[in-house]
Amino acid sequence: MEQIRLALPVEFVRAHVGLTWRDVRFGLDHELLEPQAAQVLAMAELGAFDAPAAALSDLAAAQRDEPTRRLVDALAEAEPERDDEELRRRWLYLVLAWLYENRDRLAEPLAVVEAIYADFGYPEEMESFVRYLPAAPGARLGDAALLARWATYLEAAGLRYRPAAP
């Protein structure tokens, strides 16, 4: 990500998406996740296993300033392979959901949407709410209509990525 730098709060991310360690690695690699997120997630996950992986235990016990990348990599590599494009779509949803929820704090939320559109490689699923793109025939125009289409995207994507109930 080149134009926008966000470090999403780990609790926000956990509330919106069931994270895998591959997701965590992607989020850390692209500076989309708080740096201490890996330790927080490892501590939360630790109690779910009778015999946790050594990397998970080590990550949960890591000090705040201790390098943890090799542990995140080990946990990610132990998971089934996932499509990079799917990882990008999940993080696109997370970034857009966080920005939408915090849009009142932004001077120009739709300008930020345009930057996200570029940063994520111009994803088709965003085209209906990017200001400078032509609207579909018959579509309402204006910022309010764009915000409504953004909300519609988030509703649909949220159903796809919602974490499983505990």
Summary of the model, kept short:
With 166 residues, this protein is mostly helical. It has helices spanning 10-16, 21-29, 37-46, 54-61, 69-77, 84-101, 109-119, 143-161. Helix 2 (21-29) packs across helix 5 (69-77).
Question: How would you explain this protein's 3D organization?
Answer:
The structure is a single chain. The chain is built from eight helices and no strands. The protein is elongated, with a radius of gyration of 17 Å. With 166 residues, the chain is mainly alpha-helical. The chain folds into two domains: 10-77, no CATH class; 84-161, no CATH class. Helix 2 crosses helix 5.
Structural descriptors:
single chain, 166 residues, mainly alpha, 2 domains, 8 helices, elongated
Structural classification: mainly alpha
- How large is the radius of gyration? 17 Å
Total domain modules:
2
* Helix and strand element order: HHHHHHHH
**Poorly predicted runs:** none
Q: Considering DSSP H and I runs of 4 or more, what fraction of the residues is helical?
A: 40-55%
Distance between the termini: 32 Å
Beta-strand proportion: under 5%
Instruction: Count the DSSP helices.
Output: 8
Q: How would you describe the shape?
A: elongated
Major sheet = none
